[in-house]
Structure formats: structure tokens, C-alpha cells
């Protein structure tokens, strides 16, 4: 795109800067704040090429096909939802966020830019570039960031996460549940009786092209995903589809009445429970198409109307897990991405780099069908159950001993619900920490992990239906042999 020539007259505006993780109009504080001022509001989204580059260690695409498609659909839906409010969304691609703001400051007299604040270094680096651009243009122009994306607001926590973050999830949960409460959704709209301001006029020299076309995946350098019929639940990006899924799961199929906690290991046969056993809201939550407070509020409303059950408490616990990882990033900082992880969790562990083993893990060709089934599902659909994520991650770290960061980066690349804090947080808290404590406990830690992987297969895929679905090579075998095909081989050869 050619930069627009410097405008003669620059209209005064406020800006709402939407990012990959807040793609909605409901319960959106920066949007509400921007419209409290008596100025036209320009809404902006940038498909920054940075997010379509490569991961640091594994050189995987940072955003794989499934997530890229979900993102494009979500931005498209945001544009439509803003249009329903007589607003526009300015979409830019092929330029960095800083370059886009550089242009916008030439075209408009920007008073304030409103956005959610960030805690992770890549996002903060972009934020800091935008600050510099705004300051260079006019020292008075502010980037006003507000906290969002968690259930509990940062200011309501009973501890300072940067200095006194609880060491365990249980302690975190008990402290927030005891001392903090969840703010109602959209409280900032209600408080100020906000009316939407008119959209700004496109700069005279730009007019029709100003709002920008929606890119398609090839424009972003991403191949179009190939749908796989075996997917658990096909998802479409956007606030509209996210709200529909919430409505359908909670109120129509009454999914909460049979909800199985994602991190609850007590329920057997998790692989055969069907798509409604958990909410499957993660892609919409990760892209901010749904506000986590709205999900919480709906669960509380359901309880009020249909009675309190253990299932709602289970779901709220998972939402608190989400907060634990998101707020944990404040305490853990960049240690989250280092080989030893935060708090020295990975101390004493040694790792190998073996490209052949890594490729076999990625492609679901390790020879352990229960592991391979999850890895193939992940690659073919962008999703696998929490149970599967733990199984393959533990296998990769405890058995293969491969540098865990490559696993986290592969997940980053392929997951449709990738959320930096949740992905890296789960890798360090569930996987790295466990690998270290296993090593400390067991004399033969690798054998221990392998045995557990087989045990989980038997427990959670007793008929091997899930394994056979993704590893058709073992379809003709009995359930036990399908999960452990070496047994059949030994019998055939009378070993
Ligand atoms: C190695 C590893 C990597 C992961 N990476 C991601 C990721 O990038 N993005 C992501 O959304 N989840 C991630 N998870 C957590 C979890 O697997 C998914 O949130 C869950 O499978 C999503 O399915 P659901 O929406 O049906 O979950 P539900 O059981 O319906 O839970 C509702 C919501 O709670 C949150 N949640 C549930 N479990 C966890 C958890 N363990 N940690 C944090 N939040 C949780 C999610 O936002 C989820 O959508 C990861 C887990 C592991 C073990």
C-alpha cells in the first residue's frame, strides 16, 4: 500500500485499537471509554505481519491456518457488528502496527488511543512502538490502556501479582474467591450513560479505499486450511458465533448439566464424551470474541434459574485457571519462555534436540497410538482435548526429552485457541514442573511417564475408538492392541 499524502485538514478523533484478543463490541472497556468523549471514534484493527512470521526456536509459522482463518472471520464479524452500530472498522494488513499508526496520525488529529493493556513482551513491544509514534507526532497524544481479559480485575486482587503471586493454583483460587468479586459486564457503559459518537469521515483523498479490504489467507502468507470431517466441533470465528455457541451450549443443550471439568482427571473415558462435555469456548475466549465475565455471568444466571450444581463450580474453576495463567505472566515475565521456566521449575533437567524425533512427534508417528492420535487431531483440526494436550506434552518432555519450548511453539502454531499466557503457562506449570518433580522422585523417570501414557489411554479411551479414528493403521486390532500394538506383534512372532 502506498502511504496517503499528508492531509491538509486533520479531523480530531479518538481511536479504539482492537487487537487479536479483544474482537467484540460487548463488555469492551476501551470502546466504552472512547465513546465517552465528544469526538468521532475511529476503530482500527491491524493484521500485523509480525504475527504471521516464524516462532523463535522451531521456526514454525507463528499463526497456522486454522487460527488465521478464525482470526479473519472474527475481524470480519467485528466489522459487521460495528456497522450494526453505525460505526466503521478500519482494517490494515501488510504493514506493521507502528506504520499504520504513523499513517493515521498523518491523516487525523488523534487525541487518545484506547486499548487493552498487555503483559507479554511481544505485545508490549508493539504497544511501545505505537506509543513512540504517537509521542513523536504530538507529545499530548496518549495511548490509554486499561486492564481486561481476566475474570477478576487486576485492581481487585488481594495481592500484588508482580511481587506476591501465589505459588500454587489452589492458593491463588482460594485467595481470589475469598477476597475478590467479579465485576459486572459492561459496568462502564452503565455508569456513564454512554452514547456512541459518530464515526469520523474518511480523509478526502482516500474515501472509498480508506476503510481497507479484509485480507484473505494467501494475503497473509497462510495456506487455506483443509477441513477434516473427523473434527469434534467445527468453529467459526467472531462474536456472533461465540455468543451463539454460549447460548446453545448453556441454554439449549444444557451442556452445563453434564459438564466435565477440563482439568478434572476423575471422569473416565474422556475421549469418548462428545463435543458438549466441555464448552469448547476456548477459541472465542482466546480471540476475545467472548468476554470471560459474560460467560461467568451467564453461568451465575443459569444457577439462579436452574439451581446450583457442582458443574457450575467446575466450570468457574476452569475460568479461574485461565486467570491464574494470565495474571501469572505478570509474576513470571520472560522466564515463561526460558528453558528453565519461571521459579526454577525446570532446574536440573537436560534436554535434547533431535529433529527426526520432533518431526515424528509433530506428525503423530511416534509409534504410541494414543499419543499419535492426539497429535494427528491437533494438526488436522487445530484442537485436541486438555487431556490430550497433557498426554502429548508429558510424553514429549518426559519420554522423548525434547526441548519443551519446541512443543510449546508447535502448539502456538497450530492451536485454534492459542492464547500465549494459557499455552506457555500450561506448558511450564503442568508439564515442565511435573517433569522436574518426576525426575526428582523416580529412579527411571522416562519409564514411569510411558507407563502412565498407556494407563491414560486405557482409562480415557477404553474402546480405543478415538485412537482408531485418528490412527487407522490399528483399526483392525482389539482395543488393547490398538493402544499397545507391540503386544500383537510379540504374540504373532511368539516373542
Ligand atoms: C500444554 C497445554 C497447552 C494449552 N494451551 C492452551 C491455549 O493456548 N489456549 C487455551 O485456551 N487453552 C489452552 N490450554 C488449556 C485447555 O486445554 C483448553 O483451555 C481447553 O481444552 C479448552 O476447551 P474448552 O473451551 O472446552 O474448555 P472448558 O473446560 O469448557 O473450560 C472453559 C474455559 O476455561 C479455560 N480453561 C480451561 N482449562 C484451562 C487451563 N488448564 N488453563 C487455562 N485456562 C483453562 C479456557 O478458556 C476454556 O475455554 C492448554 C492446556 C495444556 C495442557
Give an account of the 3D structure.
One of its GO terms (biological process) is photoreactive repair. The structure is a single chain. The chain is of the alpha/beta class. The protein folds into 3 domains: 8-146, 3-Layer(aba) Sandwich (Rossmann fold), CATH 3.40.50; 150-184 and 239-332, Serine Threonine Protein Phosphatase 5, Tetratricopeptide repeat, CATH 1.25.40; 344-492, Orthogonal Bundle (DNA Cyclobutane Dipyrimidine Photolyase, subunit A, domain 3), CATH 1.10.579. It has helices at residues 29-34, 65-84, 97-107, 121-137, 161-164, 169-179, 187-192, 239-252, 282-286, 292-306, 310-332, 355-362, 369-381, 386-399, 404-414, 420-441, 445-460, 465-470, 479-483, 486-492; strands spanning 11-18, 41-47, 89-93, 108-116, 142-146. Helix 13 (369-381) packs across helix 14. It is globular. It starts with 10 loop residues before the first strand and ends with a helix. Bound molecules: flavin-adenine dinucleotide.
Largest sheet: 5 strands, parallel
Give me the CATH architecture of the largest domain, please. Answer: Orthogonal Bundle
**Strand content of the residues, in percent?**
5-15%
What Rg do the Cα atoms give?
A: 24 Å
Give the overall pLDDT as a whole number: 92
Distance between the termini: 67 Å
In CATH, what is the class of the largest domain?
Answer: Mainly Alpha
The largest sheet has its strands arranged as 3-2-1-4-5
Number of strands: 5
Multimer state: single chain
Q: Which runs of at least 5 residues are low in confidence (pLDDT < 50)?
A: none
* CATH homologous superfamily label of the largest domain: DNA Cyclobutane Dipyrimidine Photolyase, subunit A, domain 3
Compute the number of helices: 20
| Bound molecule kinds, no repeats | flavin-adenine dinucleotide
Roughly what percent helix? 40-55%
Amino acid at each position: 500500500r502506498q502511504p496517503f499524502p499528508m492531509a491538509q485538514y486533520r479531523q480530531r478523533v479518538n481511536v479504539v485499537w482492537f487487537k487479536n484478543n479483544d474482537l467484540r463490541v460487548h463488555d469492551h472497556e476501551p470502546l466504552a471509554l472512547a465513546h465517552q468523549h465528544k469526538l468521532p471514534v475511529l476503530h482500527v484493527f491491524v493484521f500485523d505481519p509480525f504475527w504471521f512470521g516464524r516462532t523463535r526456536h522451531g521456526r514454525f509459522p507463528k499463526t497456522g491456518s486454522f487460527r488465521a482463518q478464525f482470526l479473519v472471520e472474527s475481524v470480519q464479524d467485528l466489522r459487521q457488528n460495528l456497522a450494526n452500530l453505525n460505526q466503521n472498522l478500519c482494517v490494515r494488513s501488510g504493514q506493521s502496527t507502528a506504520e499504520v499508526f504513523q499513517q493515521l496520525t498523518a491523516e487525523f488529529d488523534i487525541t487518545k488511543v484506547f486499548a487493552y493493556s498487555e503483559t507479554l513482551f511481544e505485545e508490549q513491544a508493539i504497544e511501545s512502538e505505537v506509543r513512540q509514534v504517537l509521542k513523536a507526532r504530538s507529545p499530548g497524544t496518549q495511548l490509554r490502556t486499561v486492564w481486561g481479559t481476566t475474570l477478576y480485575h487486576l485492581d481487585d486482587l488481594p495481592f500484588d501479582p508482580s511481587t506476591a503471586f501465589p505459588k500454587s493454583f489452589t492458593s491463588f483460587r482460594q485467595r481470589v474467591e475469598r477476597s475478590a468479586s467479579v465485576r459486572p459486564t459492561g459496568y462502564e457503559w452503565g455508569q456513564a450513560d454512554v452514547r456512541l459518537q459518530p464515526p469520523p469521515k474518511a480523509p478526502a483523498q482516500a474515501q472509498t479505499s480508506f476503510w481497507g479490504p479484509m485480507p484473505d489467507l494467501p494475503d497473509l502468507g497462510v495456506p487455506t486450511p483443509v477441513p477434516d470431517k473427523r473434527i469434534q466441533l467445527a468453529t467459526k470465528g467472531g462474536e456472533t458465533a461465540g455468543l451463539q455457541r454460549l447460548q446453545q451450549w448453556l441454554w439449549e443443550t444444557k451442556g452445563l448439566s453434564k459438564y466435565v471439568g477440563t482439568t478434572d482427571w476423575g471422569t473416565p473415558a474422556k475421549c469418548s464424551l462428545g463435543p458438549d462435555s466441555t464448552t469448547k469456548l476456548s477459541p472465542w475466549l482466546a480471540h476475545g470474541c467472548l468476554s470471560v465475565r459474560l460467560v461467568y455471568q451467564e453461568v451465575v444466571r443459569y444457577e439462579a434459574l436452574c439451581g446450583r450444581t457442582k458443574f457450575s463450580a467446575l466450570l468457574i474453576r476452569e475460568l479461574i485457571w485461565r486467570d491464574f495463567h494470565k495474571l501469572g505472566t505478570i509474576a513470571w515475565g520472560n522466564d515463561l519462555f526460558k528453558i528453565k521456566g519461571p521459579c526454577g521449575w525446570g532446574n536440573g533437567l537436560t534436554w535434547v534436540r533431535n529433529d527426526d524425533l520432533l518431526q515424528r512427534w509433530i506428525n503423530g508417528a511416534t509409534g504410541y497410538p494414543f499419543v499419535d492420535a492426539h497429535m494427528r487431531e491437533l494438526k488436522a483440526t487445530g484442537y485436541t482435548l486438555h487431556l490430550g494436550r497433557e498426554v502429548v506434552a508429558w510424553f514429549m518432555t518426559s519420554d522423548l526429552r525434547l526441548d519443551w519450548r519446541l512443543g510449546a511453539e508447535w502448539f502456538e502454531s497450530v492451536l485454534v485457541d492459542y492464547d500465549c499466557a494459557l499455552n506457555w503457562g500450561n506448558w511450564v506449570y503442568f508439564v515442565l514442573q511435573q517433569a522436574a518433580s518426576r525426575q526428582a522422585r523416580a529412579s527411571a523417570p522416562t519409564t514411569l511417564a510411558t507407563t502412565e501414557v498407556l494407563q491414560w489411554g486405557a482409562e480415557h479411551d477404553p474402546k480405543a475408538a478415538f485412537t482408531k479414528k485418528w490412527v487407522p493403521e490399528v483399526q483392525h486390532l482389539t482395543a488393547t492392541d490398538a493402544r499397545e500394538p507391540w503386544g500383537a506383534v510379540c504374540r504373532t512372532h511368539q516373542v
